[in-house]
Amino acid sequence: MNTKNNQRFQETEQKILEIFSELLSEKEVSQITVREICEKAGINRSSFYLHFQDVYDLLEKLEYFTMLKSGQIFSDPSGDYHLQDRFVRFFDFIQDHQDFFKAYLNDQHEMHILNGVLDPSASSKYREVIHELGYESERELAYHNAFFQAGLTAMVREWLNAGCPETTKELGEILLREYHPAKFKTFD
Is the pTM of this model over 0.85? Predict the structure, then answer.
């Protein structure tokens, strides 16, 4: 039986996700149909609906899986690299999955993938650094997070739409320059 835990079910779901990602490089989400995905995957519509409700549910799940993968970059407990290095790795990840991110960000989304990263309750070191930077209240920190997330989203969107002309390291340096260097050094 084709249940969620068996290999065939998981392989079919992965194939649907891969085909959907390919289609995102060619057209907007609103132009992608379940029929088209099924034809390319060699499955029937009922198989698709075992996995996803519709194309937008598929996009949401792809976003969730991408969020999990990218979140690992920032939550790596090894602590062997600085925040700037983590952002370079994050930009590497975005570049490797740019079809998804172009579609996702150009569909008027903010980069919610960073929600957990920017959550002060997620990391005591993050809380300490933010307070060192002069944020004294949770409201002030919330404003910082909203501003940072919107700015980072716009920056990545611009970079992707321009065809990634800067390397990910250069993009990390641009991000660094947006912060006062003396303040940013406290992340080391």
Answer: no
The secondary structure of 125-180 as a DSSP string is HHHHHHHHTT--SHHHHHHHHHHHHHHHHHHHHHHHHTT--S-HHHHHHHHHHTS-
Q: What type of residue is 43?
A: I
Amino acid symbol at 80: D
The DSSP-derived string for 33-63 is -HHHHHHHHT--HHHHHHH-SSHHHHHHHHH
Task: Tell me the pLDDT tens digit for each residue of 154-185.
Answer: 899 999 999 999 999 999 999 888 765 445 44
Residue (of 24, 174, 39) closest to 106 by Cα position: 24
- What distance in Å separates the CA atoms of residue 186 and residue 184, rounded to the nearest whole number? 5
- CA-CA-CA-CA torsion sign (92, 98, 104, 106): positive
